[in-house]
Amino acid sequence: MFQATFKRNCSWKSRWQNKNIPTGQVSEEVKTFLAALPKVVDALTTSASCYGSPQFTKRYKELIEFTVLKEHRFRPPILLDAYKALELPQNFSKEKWELVVMFAWSLELTQTAMVVQDDTWEQQESRWNEVCWHKMPNVGLIAINDSNLLYESAFAIVKKYFSGLPEYTSLVELLHYMNLVTSIGQSMDWECRQNGKPIYESFNMDLYREIARRKGGTAIVEGPFMGALA
C-alpha cells in the first residue's frame, strides 16, 4: 500500500515536471540545485550508517525524495545567488560551486526536518497542495523520528563534503544556530495556543513579527546569506 501510494506521489522527476511552472521560468540556480539531488541521496543512503539495512535504506530514500521536493524553494536560490555575488571572480571555481550546492542541500534538509515536525505536531493534512508526509500510509507519528533523520542528514552532507576544509566548523555551527532559533520560534508559536486553540488575548503584532522572524526569516533569509559568507 505504501509503495503504491508513494510511487504516485513521489517520483521526483515527475513531481517537478508536473508543477505548473513553465520550464523557462525555472531559474538556473534551482535547476543546478535539483540536478544534485541524486548525488545527495546516494551520499546519504550509501553511508556506513545504512550498511546492512536495505529495508531502512529504501525507506530513507523515499523519505528524502518525498519531503524535500516541494514547490516553494526560497533558500537554495538565495544561497547560490548570494555566493555568486559575494565571491571574488578569481576565487570562483567549479569545485567550489559544487560545494555551495551541497551546502544548499544541507540547509534544505534542515528546514525540511522542521516542516515535517511542524506538520506532524499540528496534524496538517497537506502542505503546498501535497499530502503531508505523516499522512502517508504506515507513517503517522514515525514522522517525528523521520524529521530527526532529515536533520541529521544535513550534518552528514556537511561532514562528507566539508570536514577537511576550514569552513567546516562555521557551517556546522550555522546549522545548529538555525535549528535553535527556529525551535525558539516554534515554542513561541505554541505558547500562543491552549489545547490547540489560539489564545488571542496574549497575541499582538510585535509577537507575530518575532515569531515570523525566528520561524521564517532565519531559515529563508539569514541562514542562506550566512552560508554564502562562511
From TrEMBL:
Keywords: Magnesium, Metal-binding, Transferase. It comes from the Eukaryota. SUPFAM superfamilies: Terpenoid synthases (SSF48576). Its cofactor is Mg(2+). The keyword Magnesium applies. InterPro entries: FPS1-like, Isoprenoid_synthase_dom_sf, Polyprenyl_synt. One of its GO terms (cellular component) is cytoplasm. Signal peptide: none annotated. GO terms for molecular function: (2E,6E)-farnesyl diphosphate synthase activity; dimethylallyltranstransferase activity; metal ion binding. GO terms for biological process: farnesyl diphosphate biosynthetic process; pheromone biosynthetic process. The keyword Metal-binding applies. Pathway: Pheromone biosynthesis. This is Uncharacterized protein.
